[in-house]
Amino acid sequence: MRAKLMVLFISEMRDTEMGRKIRKNQKTRKSSFVKQAAVLAVAGILVRVLGFLYRVPLTNMIGDEGNGIYSAGYYIYTFFLVMSSAGLPVAISKMVSEKISLGRFAAAHKIFKVSLWFSFIVGLIFSVGMYLGAGKLCEIIGSPDSYYTILTLSPTVCIVSVMAVFRGYFQGMNTTVPTALSQVMEQIFNAVFSVYLAYVFMDNVIYSAAGGTAGTGIGALAGLLFIWFAYFLARPSIKRRVRFDKNFYREESAKRITKNLVALAVPIITGTAIFSMTNLIDMQMVNSRLEAAGFAQNQINALYGQLTGKYVTITTLPVSVSTAVATAVLPAIAAGVAKKAYKDVNLKMNVALRVTMIISIPAAIGIGVLGNQILEMLYPNYSDGGILLQVGSISIIFLALSQIATGILQGLGKVYVPAMNALIGAVVKIPLNYFLISIPEINVVGAVISTIACYAVASFLNFRALTKATRAKPDYSGVLFKPLTASCFMAVICHFSYKVIYYFIGINSVATIAAICFGVFIYFAVMVFIRGLRKEDLEFMPMGGKILRVLRRHRLI
Question: Is the pLDDT at 429 greater than 80, yes or no?
């Protein structure tokens, strides 16, 4: 009897110890996963800021007309890129991580090798198709001057396709550092060579725009070489794990791996392609409807350049920052739904939404109030287009809400839901484009209005799907009402502080920067006063830890 009790006691102790180890490993994996997501988020912010910064001198060199030529070719490139490699990093990451979690390192490496060949062949096909079809593509989009930008960008499709495999492989091994560093390296080379080559060919706006797009290819090649070098350094360790893989199992065939890769990538490609197609439709309709309204080709290029080079570039910057910051919380949401811990899901989802809106709402209102002044400060040689920011800055809120909801839905496995909602938004956008752009007095502002409608519909549908999927109750006060209240106070301060400072100093740049600084301070002060900032929100913001300590010291949170 005593022996039996001893056996039971020892068995229970082992089970308890095993349970502790399992819980410890789960916590470690969760912590690591959040940290890796945070690394990508920081890299995403840096990449977007660098991308914005180099477009400022580029626009001042090639002007609105050059921006129109540049953007038309770039949107064609983006569509081909989406079709060739948009879903590869996520698909490869998922396949590799599944094998590694089972200790099947040889199978994981085979997935990498098969994916590398597959992406190279597909990328090469799309690159050649883009190069050979450049003339026809110019006819379709109604931008004949973009021929050389399309030619210049065509090799980049294949380069990025191959790079996507390396990034997916490293992410599957639970390390995002090589991916993050390669993204930063890519953007640095892109920025330097885009500006330099645009300057070299500045005498001809068509060639100058093509020179600007050439920097994209050089940047992609630099990113590929960097991540290949990271793989080269890690290769001995990878090969050692493959060689000592003691698991005896039947490896999947290359055909099977390719089939699984396509099955995982296609849903993501579909959703991304809809947004890319929307941009192409927008471009074609802007060109054709402005022509119908009686505008000449150089005027069409200039107006389209204001739309893409100024409105799109400026309004998407705060969106990318807010969604990148909120990315770190998404894995926890997916884990909570899997465990049916809906209370925790509700908390995490509201954190993601609040962080996104705390940044996006004041950005939208601030850009709307100081639209003309911001363009005059950034583009002193080509400052037209302020009306686009004044009318269209509200789209920042809808786009940010749609993107964060899309990210969460994809994390929950609802990959087709945001794709269908984006399609519905595009259906709303097309007729508005058709009628509004052709009115000479409205012209390209019509595309901005239709964009607002598109994002508003998509964000509403995504938000509704999100609350249904997570069974969460949104914190409407913290997500919308409090940031909106503080932003209204900020808008008043921005407007009047600019007027006063400009009256005494007479320098637009100084007055604009000062007005923005005053506005940020007032927004933050009002948010603290109305309890719009919470501990969990600040933890996911840049410098949030330091801000939190200061607020606690003064008992403001």
Answer: yes
Closest CA to 400 of 135, 48, 18, 6: 48
pTM more than 0.85: no
Could you tell me the two tokens for 229?
């070098």
Same domain, 287 and 241: no
pLDDT category at 371 given cuts 50, 70, 90 is very high
Q: Do you know the residue count of the chain?
A: 557
290 and 169 fall within a common domain: no
Identify whether residues 214 and 328 lie together within a single domain.
Answer: no
143 and 211 in one domain?
Answer: yes
Handedness of CA 34, 37, 39, 41 (dihedral sign): negative
Q: What are the structure tokens assigned to 136, written together?
A: 């026809």
Residues 533 and 396 both lie in one domain = yes
In contact, 489 and 522? CB cutoff 8 Å:
yes
Of residues 49, 51, 67, the one with CA closest to residue 385: 67
Please check whether residue 191 is in contact with residue 53, taking contact to mean a CB–CB distance below 8 angstroms.
yes
Domain boundaries, position 171? 27-245
Q: What is the mean pLDDT of residues 397-420?
A: 81
Number of domains in the chain: 2
